């Protein structure tokens, strides 16, 4: 099998027969939530990071671990433009398998671009080559933690299940879940964006099937 085919999609429509479905949020409610994150009680840089991170869970169906491990060189072309289809390396995904994810929603692209521009403006993890990746360090992660006055990569938590070692992004899971809860979605979690987009796609596909003429 060629390398080009050895990728899975991060975005995947769930089976209609799933017994228990998590709480979902409509596109309009999601956009309203994201806009409310930018307020006088939140540092503008933190708000911008949180808005862009939430959009990646919604528009690209990122899991928390993918949000935490996504690198600048996977988000941008060397000329600094934001990709429309990102490739995630195996060690950055839940299943430890290279994955593809779209970044095509205009609002989502705007927030991610604004966050990256903020990083450049505030000189957060710049690289050695100012002419590539907007001057950012291509190996740095897109979304960073701000702790004790410093920006750094989010940490991962090591776990073992059935003899297999894996890592979870507990800090990002908690951050995303807290954002939903703080802005009125008490039953939501870090998975809400991903499941909401998948459910929306599921409905659209079902509607298309119903409207398709069989010849």
UniProtKB/TrEMBL annotation:
PROSITE patterns: TYR_RECOMBINASE. This is Tyrosine recombinase xerC 2. GO terms for molecular function: DNA binding. Keywords: DNA recombination. The lineage of its organism: Bacteria, Pseudomonadati, Pseudomonadota, Gammaproteobacteria, Alteromonadales. One of its GO terms (biological process) is DNA recombination. Residues 20-215 form the Tyr recombinase domain.
């Amino acid at each position: 099998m060629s390398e080009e085919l050895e990728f899975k999609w991060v975005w995947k429509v769930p089976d209609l027969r799933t017994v228990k479905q998590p709480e979902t949020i409509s596109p309009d409610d999601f956009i309203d939530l994201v806009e409310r994150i930018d307020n006088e009680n939140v540092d503008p840089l933190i708000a911008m990071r949180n808005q862009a991170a939430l959009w990646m869970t919604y528009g690209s169906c990122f899991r928390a671990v993918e949000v935490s491990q996504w690198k600048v060189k996977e988000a941008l072309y060397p000329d600094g433009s934001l990709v429309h289809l990102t490739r995630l390396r195996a060690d950055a995904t839940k299943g430890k398998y290279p994955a593809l994810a779209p970044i095509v929603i205009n609002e989502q692209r705007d927030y991610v671009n604004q966050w990256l521009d903020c990083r450049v403006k505030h000189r957060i993890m710049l690289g050695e080559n100012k002419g590539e990746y907007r001057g950012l360090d291509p190996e740095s992660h897109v979304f960073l933690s701000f702790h004790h006055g410093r920006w750094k990569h989010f940490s991962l938590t090591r776990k073992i299940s059935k003899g297999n070692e894996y890592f979870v992004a507990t800090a990002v899971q908690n951050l995303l879940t807290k954002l939903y809860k703080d802005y009125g979605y008490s039953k939501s979690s870090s998975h809400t964006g991903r499941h909401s987009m998948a459910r929306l796609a599921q409905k659209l596909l079902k509607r298309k099937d119903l409207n398709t003429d069989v010849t």
